[in-house]
Amino acid sequence: MKDLLEMDVIEHLFGKNQWDEKLGDAEESIKILTFNLGNQTYGIKLGQIREIVEPSPIQKVPHTPQWYRGIFSLRGESMPLIDLRTKMDIQPCTEDSNNAFMIFLHNGNPHAVIVDRVNEVLEILTSEVNFEVFREGNTEDFFRGTFIKDSQLIPLIDITLLNLEYNRKAE
Q1: Which of 33, 41, 47 is nearest to 120 (CA)?
Q2: What's the rounded mean pLDDT across residues 85-112?
Q3: Structural element, H or E, at residue 145
């Protein structure tokens, strides 16, 4: 009965298709890409990232929120660039040689987030994730849980749930 309840919590927090088509039991492993925003390490399910690329020139877009850094071109395809630090209400990302653009799909369209540094891919068990810490209503909807790696607490983000809606200012 506990396993069924635990799976209900996982399904509620991640959704059936957000993390894996089949979540399996609590001992299923998932691959997590870790990255840094400032001194904090975060994790994201590897399957949510289409690719990681070096930063390219950004074209600013007027009348957009601060977290909307602008647009850039990747192999002829234009896509928005989101500053995840600003979106999470921490100091905006500063550009340096360790920055990376992580490409993901949001509502079927390619987007990118700029991060300070991409670290490594970890394979963890779903039983290692604390899904209770970010219950509905406690924080932003895109935080899904935490796990511990080498005594460091790592929050997990479901990037497909970022709220990227905004109202353009009228001129």
Answers
A1: 33
A2: 85
A3: strand 143-149
Residues in the chain, how many? 171
User: What are the pLDDT digits (tens) for 146-160?
Assistant: 899 999 999 999 888
Decide: 129 and 105 in contact? Cβ < 8 Å.
no
CB-count burial class (<10 Å; 0-12, 13-18, 19+) for 53: middle
The residues near 137 (Cβ < 8 Å, ≥ 6 apart) are none
Q: Which amino acid is at 168?
A: R
Exposure string of 35-47, with b = 16+ CB inside 10 Å and e = fewer, is: bebeeebbbbbee
On whether the pTM is more than 0.90, the answer is no
- Residue carrying structure tokens 């509905």: 136
Q: Which residues of 96-123 are buried (b: 16+ CB within 10 A; e: fewer)?
A: eeeebbbbbebeeeebbbbbbebeeebe
